[in-house]
Amino acid sequence: MRSFLQQTLAGTPPAVTQGETAYLRWQWQAEGILSLTPLTHCDRALVLSAGIHGNETAPVEIVEQLLAPLLSGEKPLAVRLLVILGNPAALRSGRRYQQYDLNRLFGGRWQRVSETSEAQRALQLEQVMERFWRSCHRQTSRWHLDLHTAIRGSYYPRFAVMPANARPWPDTFMQWLAAAELEALVFHRAPGGTFTHYSCEHHHAASSTLELGKALPFGENDLTQFRAVQRALAALLEGETWPQPHTQPRRYHVSQQITRQGEGFTLHMSADTLNFTAFPQGTLLAEEGDTRYYVQQAREYVLFPNPQVAPGLRAGLMLTEENAQMPAQ
Known about the structure:
By secondary structure, the protein is an alpha/beta fold. The protein contains seven helices and 16 strands. Strand 7, helix 5 and strand 8 (184-187) form a beta-alpha-beta unit.
């Protein structure tokens, strides 16, 4: 029998689309979408997604390793689980996306580019997620962890991006993020088209995008640097006690977004600028026509700088650190 990843990459549905172990029932929902339901009562539901960008393979390999002992019946399952490999066509081609960035299309934004394959996939994933939450008991806690890797290297190889959220984050969710030994948390202030913002805004899920290392092809990832994340995920899935965190992650808030509007856009950062690189107040970050982006606070840190994005999309975020000591004047 092919593994979930192998079957997804094959591009054809499996001959057997559902089954059962001593602990769970599983069902192939659609290409790259698998549900697992414990045979015993549980009070937590989790959407675990990866491969929203097809060149980000380390998270996909981690998900595969987590699924194997569950599907073989070796390990129990303690949560209602929906596993999603977001963009199978892009995974097969090793490209970030085929026609349009899938992680900018959720929350109905897919309607703007409805003719693209990613728009159709975004709609499908929204519908699958809605059915999944609807099938859960109302009192069941809802979590969504979307696993990614960054295009660039980072001063923090493991960090999480939190969608804008007017509700308090559940204590258990924040404790789990610390147990996964994430080094930093980045809090958005504005809505966006990401998968986690969709699940948080529309389904009131505790959601986070986990950024794990740098994008590399299948087979070239050093998964040892993500052992803490994998252990924490395994504990969550199997109902074990979470590891005790050694430290708490540093906290950052988005202070401004740099947006590329057209062909005249210039980002004043080198191609090897790392995520969380600091810039002092007054630094010119980017320009396009009469528009200039400067560092506005005493110190700001860049995240996801990418001048090659399509017009209208984010070319970088600037962050301020929570409770940071300001530099001496």
